[in-house]
Write a structure and sequence with these properties.
Layout (H helix, E strand, L loop, with lengths): L18 E9 L2 H11 L2 E5 L3 E5 L8 E5 L3 E8 L3 H10 L7 E2 L2 H7 L2 E6 L6 E6 L16 E2 L2 E2 L26 E9 L3 H13 L2 E7 L12 H10 L3 E7 L7 E2 L3 E5 L8 E8 L3 H16 L5 E9 L5 E6 L5 E6 L3 E2 L6 E4 L3 H4 L5 E3 L25 H8 L7 H5 L2
Parallel strand pairs: 1-4, 5-8, 11-15, 12-21, 16-19
Antiparallel strand pairs: 1-5, 2-3, 3-4, 6-7, 7-8, 9-10, 11-16, 12-13, 13-15, 14-20, 17-18, 17-22, 18-19
Length: 409
């Protein structure tokens, strides 16, 4: 297999995507998912018997779509700069749909045009959109100001980040979600490297940080056997890559896509997690306390990892499994970089680069966290309790049961 670490940068990708803009699921119980999105901090923009569409505060019509069907992650959408970009994708990507108006409730919410295709390496349905429009939603609380040591930005005003200072309440309530920050895919070893290359070739994505498992000759016995076998199987030492949009001199998120290798034997690509940006660290902790209280009361949510601060990307994070096991993350304070940044190499065999704390600056240790719960819904502690058909549909990339959804895009 070709070592993707040695491949040259794509000279002319099909397009240079602007951002990730929404994710798409199907689920058998939209009422359960409507409760979840409200608990998570999203705002329902449209609901009928067949679809639940939710948005954040940013001026985009929606960022989370759940359609009635089997429990499954379907895919996500990229925003592009022009209709010419959509035409370029339609002409260059095998199996891509023609450019067409966004229809149904999604089109009524924000207009725009779209293409879509089933990505052959992963089986995810990838979409590209242009021309969507919506007004921003006003935050209920405004931006939080802080008194940093020696620099007071808030004088004569009591800090009340959750609106529960009087009376003090156990549950601070849901935070407000601003936007979709990034999507993380867990892909079978080997295929995950080709998917990275596909993202660079098709959507112009750049590598911010590339994690490599560089094992010196004769040192295999000192590393976990699954990692050693992974390297032998793929023929490349590239384990995962944080990938960002190429916006030239303009700044963009440190990563909009992260591609991980699936290391638990699951045969099909999965959603690792989707990250949603909130305004501040207080909002991340607010979401954590809200979900923790709801779970204590019996809500179908499980902590996956958090609260902590990452090294690569720097986000303050908190991850939770939704009712079907898919991980949703609240995050804030991520790095912003331009096209001149990196690419950097992370040597996973060097404790000084990955650390013994799960890649955290601070947060739960690997032993005390659910960091390993990010390979897909099969890692949810509730997964074994799901009905057989739900478990099967969650892990399968067979789109036959949701073909009507794909055809209607």
């Amino acid at each position: 297999m070709t070592d993707t670490a040695t491949l040259p940068e794509t000279a002319a990708p099909v397009v240079k995507a602007k951002d990730v803009t929404y994710i798409r699921f199907s689920a058998p119980d939209l009422d359960v998912m409507e409760t979840f999105v409200a608990d998570f901090g999203l705002v329902v923009a449209h609901r009928d018997d067949d679809v639940l569409i939710s948005r954040g505060l940013e001026p985009m019509p929606f960022l989370h779509v759940v359609q009635r069907g089997p429990a499954k992650f379907i895919g996500w959408a990229f925003e592009v700069d022009s209709e010419d970009d959509l035409l370029a994708l339609a002409g260059a990507v095998p199996g891509c749909s023609p450019v067409h108006d966004i229809g149904g409730a999604e089109g009524q919410l924000g207009g725009g045009r779209r293409v879509h295709f089933v990505e052959p390496i992963t089986g995810f349905v990838l979409e590209a959109v242009y021309g969507q429009q919506a007004e921003p939603l006003a935050t209920r609380r405004g931006r939080i100001t802080y008194n940093h040591a020696g620099v007071a930005e808030r004088i004569g005003v009591e800090q009340d980040v959750s609106g529960n200072r009087r009376p003090i309440q156990k549950d601070p309530g849901a935070p407000e979600v601003y936007r979709l920050g990034h999507v993380v895919a867990a892909v079978p070893p080997g295929a995950h490297q080709f998917f990275m290359k596909f993202l660079a070739d098709t959507f112009g994505m750049l590598v911010s940080d590339s994690a490599r498992m560089i094992i010196p000759p004769g040192a295999e016995e000192h590393f976990p056997p699954p990692l050693v076998e992974l390297i032998k199987t793929t023929g490349s030492d590239v384990m995962f890559q944080f990938m960002r949009m190429d916006r030239g001199a303009a700044d963009t998120d440190h990563h909009s896509i992260l591609v991980l290798p699936l290391m638990d034997g699951t045969p099909a690509a999965q959603l690792s997690h989707a990250a949603f940006e909130v305004f501040s660290m207080d909002d991340v902790f607010r979401g954590h306390m809200h979900f923790r209280e709801l779970a204590t009361q019996g809500a179908p949510y499980s902590l996956a990892w958090g609260v902590g601060r990452h090294v690569y990307g720097s986000q303050v994070y908190d991850y939770w499994h939704d009712p079907y096991g898919h991980v949703h993350e609240h995050m804030c304070d991520g790095d912003r970089v331009d096209a001149s940044f990196g690419p950097n190499v992370i040597d996973m065999t060097d404790p000084g680069q990955m650390g013994h704390n799960g890649g955290n600056q601070w947060g739960p240790t690997v032993e005390k966290s659910g960091v390993h719960n990010l390979n897909g819904p099969q890692c949810d502690p509730k997964f074994a309790d799901q009905p057989d058909d739900v478990r099967a549909s969650l892990l399968s990339r067979d789109l036959s049961e949701v073909q009507h959804i794909v055809d209607a895009l």
